[in-house]
Design a protein that fits this description.
alpha/beta; Rossmann fold; 8 helices; binds NADP nicotinamide-adenine-dinucleotide phosphate
Length: 248
């Protein structure tokens, strides 16, 4: 198994892509902290599914946009499993609207949930990883929107582009400690986040996807599990687009 003996925190793992990442990592042998914000029942369902398949997981509530809560999440993972090898920053949200009508709160909540959360958890995890001297893996989930932009998503695209700059910089800071920092940028994946898109818009997206279909959450999870594993030991500061070609 790719992640035997490793400990992973996956933020926003109660639903969608985060859930698939947590399940994939557990299937590959990692002990997983399933973070969620408000949907405790969904997080517990993820945990019981993992345990039912012979894996190890625990659900931990934390609003990762909050500095102290993110710090407490990382501390609780280390207390529970004794160490932390892998951090996946997946928690995210949208408030899509054209800039002309975007409210300040719609900017703030998206940037704080998607980008400040990455600062918060990375800040909490870096010192323990460096002190432990065992290396580490940080994988941040961006989006094709952060690479090519999308009307109605100035807030979201800015937060996702910010993740890329942040990750490339942190990769340069932590490379000498054998801690890799990489980004996975998904294209369109059916989850609660994309469920409100109108059918005609969904059909329009297909015309721009070379592979001709939306992705599946598990296809994102495969890339994340690879980056978290020893097989990706010489990859850092990279952005892997898992988007069917739409962002190229
Ligand atoms: P989703 O189905 O809406 O799930 C969002 C997850 O994030 C939930 O587990 C939610 O927890 C959690 N979350 C939200 N705010 C949080 C906070 N402040 N603190 C902790 N957890 C929080 O979203 P998704 O589609 O799986 O997206 C996952 C990631 O992939 C996001 O970063 C998104 O931007 C990115 N992405 C998605 C797509 C796509 O097409 N779906 C494309 C590109 C990138 P609760 O259940 O407790 O609310």
């Amino acid at each position: 198994m790719l992640l035997e003996g490793k400990v992973a925190v996956v933020t926003g793992a109660s639903r969608g892509i985060g859930r698939a990442i947590a399940e994939e990592m557990a299937a590959e042998g990692a002990r997983v902290v399933v973070n969620y914000h408000s949907n405790a029942a969904a997080a517990e369902e993820v945990v019981s599914g993992i345990i039912g398949r012979g894996g190890t997981a625990v659900a931990v509530q934390a609003d990762v946009s909050d500095f102290a809560a993110a710090d407490a999440l990382i501390k609780s993972a280390i207390e529970t499993y004794g160490a932390l090898d892998i951090l996946v920053n997946n928690a995210g949200t949208t408030r899509d609207t054209l800039l002309l009508s975007m409210k300040e709160e719609e900017w703030d909540v998206v940037v704080e949930t998607n980008l400040k959360s990455v600062f918060n958890t990375c800040k909490a995890v870096t010192r323990p990883m460096v002190r432990r001297k065992q290396g580490g893996r940080i994988i941040n989930i961006s989006s094709v929107s952060g690479i090519v932009g999308q009307p109605g998503q100035t807030n979201y695209a800015a937060s996702k582009a910010g993740i890329i700059g942040f990750s490339k910089s942190l990769a340069k800071e932590l490379g000498s400690r054998n801690i890799t920092v990489n980004v996975v940028a998904p294209g369109f994946v059916p989850t609660d986040l994309t469920s409100s898109l109108p059918d005609d818009m969904v059909r329009q997206t297909l015309a721009f996807i070379p592979l001709g279909r939306w992705g599946e959450a598990r296809e994102i999870a495969h890339a994340v599990a690879f980056l978290a594993s020893d097989k990706a030991s010489y990859i850092t500061g990279a952005v892997i687009q898992v988007d069917g070609g739409i962002g190229t």
